[in-house]
Design a protein that fits this description.
- This protein has 396 residues and is an alpha/beta fold.
- It has two domains: 273 residues, Aminopeptidase; 114 residues, Alpha-Beta Plaits.
- 33% of the residues lie in helices and 25% in strands.
- The strands form four sheets. It has an eight-stranded mixed sheet with strand order 1-2-4-3-5-16-6-15, sandwiched between helices.
- Helix 1 runs antiparallel to helix 3 and helix 7 packs across helix 9.
- The protein binds nickel (II) ion (NI).
- The site of nickel (II) ion has 5 residues, from loops.
- Nickel (II) ion binds next to loops.
Length: 396
Amino acid sequence: MKDLREDIDSILPSLIELRHELHAHPELGYQEHETARRLLDRLEKLPGVVIRTGVAETGIVATLGTDKSGPCIALRADMDALPIQEETGRHYASQNAGCMHACGHDGHMTCLIGAATVLAGRADELKGPVKFIFQPAEEGGAGGKRMYQEGALKDPPVDAIFALHAWPTLEAGTLAIRPGPIMAHVTDFEITVHGAGTHAAMPHRGIDTILVASHVVVALQSIAARNTDPTDSAVVTVGTFNAGTATNIIPPVARLRGTIRALTNKTKVATKERLRQIAEQTAAAYRGRAEVEFIPLYPGLSNDPAAAGFVAEVAYDVLGAQAVIADEPPTLGGEDFAFYARSIPAAFWWLGVRPKGAETYPGLHQPTFDFNDDVIALGVRLHCEMALRFAASWGK
Ligand code: NI
């Protein structure tokens, strides 16, 4: 049988071209129309692929091997870009002002198109269907939730789903994964602090809202430090603090907005409870009043142990043990792949993009970040190996 690497090498220049096109034309969540068209141009040329478009507005579900009776594997890529002004200086840099692929989603889509292309030419080797899921709005728009609600995991029903994410701290050629919690529960909050406005020179006639809100900000940091089990993880970050209009006025209202992150639901619930108590009672101690509102964003992402084990096993085989980290620590970032993972077995894995020999690489969501073309072939290969081996391994 022909080596997968030959198949991949033959389409690599065209994949790099696609990646650069996607990178040059980034689109924000639910606006990925041009992106979807570029993906469809490629998918429609593949034999045996059944395509559903317009899922969650701009999403695409492409299925190969609908006639196969074995277990169905799904591979997912996210499509949206971020509201960031690009500073990479690349010749294919974003042509859309204030919008860029700073999270590697251009690379994720490219790897998945590569896998669909290679596997369409090897459909006779597949025992079960393979679903390629391109989803919009990962960056805060919960596109994964809508894809799920609109049946992306049905017809045929998916047995397990997998996704890769570019990871800048990992060296190119390596893969990292872990079983269990890998990314955080995310809940945003808004605290409105009410004091009493007054002249800046006569603070005793009012209640200094800025002072009250400042005490709230400081006290909130005791949640992670003093209320959370030191072996567990929680983050409380106040990201915005808005109050006041002039140097000589004490304003009546201050608004704090921020985010809570936790790796378990129990810790998330406990952190929310403490946040409310601390905000309300700290404000009261200074004669102010705090109103707290929570905005639930993404559930925690936990890797199914069997699915994570399958990824590690395939990676050991393809890359060798030295290039696989099977117990990577979790991060407190959020990821809407969690909406699939809470319904069916799922595993999310990180693909190293830091160039070999480089000590550092720009981080995700930075204006200088760019997915690394040198790892496209490996991403494609890992997707393909997982799809080709899934039927034989799954449920064993
Ligand atoms: Ni991302």
